[in-house]
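Reply to thread "Modeling small-molecule complexes from scratch"

Following up on the discussion above, here's a worked example others can learn from. I took a protein sequence and the SMILES for zinc ion and predicted the complex. Inputs first:
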Amino acid sequence: MAKIIKNGTIVTAADTYTGDVLIENGIVTGIGLNLEVPGAEIVDASGCYVFPGGIDPHTHLDMPFGGTVTADDFESGTIAAAYGGTTTVIDFCLTTKGQPLQSAVDTWHNKSQGKAVIDYSFHLMVSELNDRVLGELPQIIEQEGITSLKVFMAYKNTFQADDGVLYKTLQAAKREGALVMVHAENGDVIEYLVEQALAAGNTDPIYHALTRPPELEGEATGRAAYLTELTDSQLYVVHVTCAEAVWKIAEARKKGLRVYGETCPQYLVLDQTALEKPDFEGAKYVWSPPLREQWNQDVLWDALWNGSLQTIGSDQCSFDFKGQKDLGRGDFSKIPNGGPTIEDRFSLLYSEGVQKGRISLNKFVDIISTSSARLFGLFPQKGTIAIGSDADIVIFDPSVERTLSAATHHMNVDYNAFEGFEIKGEPVSVLSRGEFVIRDKQFVGQAGAGQYLRRKRFEAETAFPAKAEISGGVV
Ligand SMILES: NC(=O)NCCC(=O)O
Ligand SMILES: [Zn+2]
Ligand SMILES: [Zn+2]
């Protein structure tokens, strides 16, 4: 049945206006004033913003890490995402050395099929780049529509790849039209610092942060940017936390390189002192790269506003405090890295960003949705409200005041990283391809209703013209 969303304020990355949105067969088929279609269901959005659904470009659902598996899988994780206003997630498909790429992708299809309640896609981790992998890549990109490749520069002896692999991945991505993503930290030096800390008896969670200093994130970011320049390729730096890394991305963009960056809600609102909480509670805040000194938050907000960073990913990677984070009692290096963020990403960015005057309403939409659609080959099917786009829509009440808490969240994890945060604004209803997933704050979706998205290849013109940013004189 057709639906018309009426009386709301439609907000895209470019415009803010009052109008009705007509939805037929899952697609936006009309936008205008006083739309009427016989028999259409009327959805009243009075007093609300009508946003394109959030796109979360960075999740780890049902992912093995550090001898355990994330608490949220594709069902609980995407339900929580939907409650939070996100209608598309792009998850990281892990690979191991020697494993055929298709078998790794099939594993991720098995984890997600029949479970996801919103649309989803995969990035592919590159753990080695030999002739076999080079031979398999074109087919994965073409047939699976996986047009982004992830290289870890950290996590020595598990996920970390060397610079040769990164260089060859950048070359292959240039050839195939893919975007290379990096976890940018110098894993070799971190490994040494961790050994030294443990040998000195420094085992508490705070040493996780102290053994991963910002210089090692800045160094790896700069290294990756130089290799991108050398290969004339394209790079997306995930979970940027600090000034040192922002400066390297800004420098690369000033040169006109196709280098992009993402930060995450935790780095915008939490700081390193959280790791010092007593009774091992600091373990709840162990991410890699780690939370930083508070002043970095202003640098990250500025970078989002001026375009040095383009997106916000949740880096959802949840582990229970009891039984999972616990694995690192007495040895911080055994604390599973990551936290629960998928549900609060959208509202935190709105509340801390728009409400506090750090970013505009349109910039919010750009960061939370549109930029990810452009970078990851989903635009304009996703990431905007336009005729012909999927009707992925969030009806958002900006007046609601609420407190984030594990007692009320929908993630399958026993704590909330933002416990006690008082925020303004809440998604009231969320539609995925025209069907309600959340209606009046209640889940009404279905496991398995989410569709796998084959994505287009990376296109510089569709992504961000670095020149515009330079002429704006922003970095
Ligand atoms: N970020 C984090 O601590 N955990 C998830 C894995 C990763 O993104 O590095
Ligand atoms: Zn990472
Ligand atoms: Zn991650």
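What I'd highlight from this example: Confidence is low (pLDDT under 50) at residues 466-475. Residues 53-382 form a domain with the TIM Barrel fold (CATH 3.20.20.140). Questions welcome below.
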